[in-house]
Amino acid sequence: MPRPQALFVGGNQSIKGFKEMLRAYDLIRQQADLKLVIVGRLSPADVAAVAQRYGLAHLGPVDVECRPFQDAAGLAGLMRESFCLLHPSYIDNSPNSVCEAQLVGLPVVASGVGGVGSLITEGETGLLCTLAPGSLARQVLRLCHDAALHGRIARQAQAVARERHDPNVIVQRTLAAYQAVCQSAGPAGRANAPAAVAIH
């Protein structure tokens, strides 16, 4: 049976928390048999160089696997194979990787920066952490030690994400916002309010 894998799709970008993620993974592997898969423009030698710099030279190819950038189908397949997504970013708005993971039912552990908090409700549609490696590690270990929590987050995140990204829902919510603005403008605004639209 293949080892469960934690997925990181930020390459070796420091702004995506690459160093923090490696340090957190080193803590995780001491308590859970979890492999790390890193997607991006980097090689095992690149990972080894960073690991060496931060006293993590013992992290080798047995535990850390590098994958090149993936197309949509490849990334979706990789997410379906994974146990969780690690996203300890320093700054973000509405990260595609978090949204995509939720859509396929992959639990996400992410730093609560920028717009991430609008995508994840702690303990319901994902787990939030700080940029401290110990914080990320603790949240991942919660998933490792609580299968019910892992399953619940996977289901709830997928349901919420499917509604959030449904084209008809997006259109109707946008129209509702415009209609509210027109209503506040008085009779002239109401006359110009857009009608409901369906996307097929």
UniProtKB/TrEMBL annotation:
The keyword Transferase applies. The keyword Transport does not apply. GO terms for molecular function: glycosyltransferase activity. Keywords: Glycosyltransferase, Transferase. It comes from the Bacteria. This is Glycosyl transferase family 1 domain-containing protein.
